[in-house]
């Protein structure tokens, strides 16, 4: 029998070694310095021989200088600095909404209380009280000085009629122009209106103004009558004053007026002649 001989193992061809390319001959001075530093690292004895304070440099006797670490760190690429976080900006304050222009009706001045009271009246009564400022006012000023300008009037709505209007003022007060002592009286004012009529509150304030006015009894009665004639020009008017006695005597002056060239002129003359045909009994003065 034929003996089988072992076949020799097949040898594979060795792969060519991949040799890395040699570094460029020209190297930067810094790289060469680093290689020298690594190749010629000092021994322990040499380290002890260095003078104090020298860390990155070698002495002249040991050859090339050692590159400080600070320079090596400088060669590294600087890290990109991350931007600092932005501070949160406060929310903008809410601005007030622009005011809408008000209509012209709201910009008008507010009416006074007297005007409001006139507006509350019916339309057919409004013209009658036009021009009155004292009636319905919040405050009333009582002046103790004679002031005829305080008198106010309103329209007579019944001019076709002849009728009487009478005022009684039982608390009239004035001063004696000589002694300065007070005089007390009841004043009666009666008149027949034409176009204008005197307003009662203004008449009250007018009579109150005689409180510190010095005048005789007769003078007070005639002044009141003439001021009312000038104010409203009535058809007929009469003023009768009944003063309390002072010194044991009481005085009752009477004055009247009728519009000239009218039938009221004759009426005033007859009224003057017969005004006291039946004198009253004076027992309370």
Characteristics:
285 residues; alpha+beta; GTP Cyclohydrolase I, domain 2; two-stranded antiparallel sheet; rod-shaped
Give your account of this protein's structure.
The protein is of the alpha+beta class. It has a domain at 155-273: GTP Cyclohydrolase I, domain 2 (2-Layer Sandwich). Helix content is 24%, strand content 14%. It contains 7 helices and 6 strands. It has helices spanning 29-39, 44-49, 69-75, 113-120, 200-208, 217-232, 263-273, and strands at residues 153-155, 165-175, 182-192, 196-198, 236-243, 254-258. A 4-stranded antiparallel sheet has the order 2-3-5-6, sandwiched between helices. Strands 1-4 form a two-stranded antiparallel sheet. Strand 2 (165-175) and strand 3 form a beta hairpin. The N and C termini lie far apart (192 Å).
Topology:
Blueprint (H helix, E strand, L loop, with lengths): L28 H11 L4 H6 L19 H7 L37 H8 L32 E3 L9 E11 L6 E11 L3 E3 L1 H9 L8 H16 L3 E8 L10 E5 L4 H11 L12
Antiparallel strand pairs: 1-4, 2-3, 3-5, 5-6
What's the short version?
With 285 residues, this protein is α+β, with helices and mostly antiparallel strands.
């Amino acid at each position: 029998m034929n003996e089988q001989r072992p076949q020799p193992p097949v040898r594979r061809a060795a792969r060519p070694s991949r040799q890395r390319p040699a570094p460029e001959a020209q190297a930067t001075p810094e790289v060469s310095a680093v290689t020298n530093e690594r190749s010629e690292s000092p021994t322990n004895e040499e380290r002890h021989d260095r003078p104090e304070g020298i860390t990155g440099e070698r002495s002249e006797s040991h050859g090339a200088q050692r590159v400080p670490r600070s320079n090596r760190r400088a060669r590294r690429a600087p890290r990109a600095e991350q931007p600092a976080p932005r501070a949160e900006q406060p929310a903008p304050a809410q601005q007030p909404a622009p005011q809408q222009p008000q209509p012209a009706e709201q910009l008008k001045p507010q009416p006074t209380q007297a005007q409001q009271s006139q507006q509350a009246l019916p339309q057919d009564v409004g013209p009658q009280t036009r021009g009155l400022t004292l009636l319905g006012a919040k405050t009333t000023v009582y002046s103790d000085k004679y002031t005829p300008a305080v008198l106010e009037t309103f329209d007579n709505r019944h001019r076709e009629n002849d009728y009487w209007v009478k005022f009684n003022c039982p608390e009239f007060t004035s001063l004696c122009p000589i002694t300065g002592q007070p005089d007390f009286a009841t004043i009666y004012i009666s008149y027949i209106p034409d176009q204008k009529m005197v307003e009662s509150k203004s008449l009250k304030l007018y009579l109150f103004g005689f409180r510190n006015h010095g005048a005789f009894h007769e003078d007070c009665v005639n002044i009141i009558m003439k001021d009312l004639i000038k104010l409203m020009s009535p058809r007929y008017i009469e003023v009768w004053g009944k003063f309390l006695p002072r010194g044991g005597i009481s005085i009752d002056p009477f004055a009247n007026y009728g519009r000239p060239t009218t039938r009221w002129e004759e009426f005033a003359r007859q009224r003057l002649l017969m005004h006291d045909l039946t004198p009253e009994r004076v027992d309370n003065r």
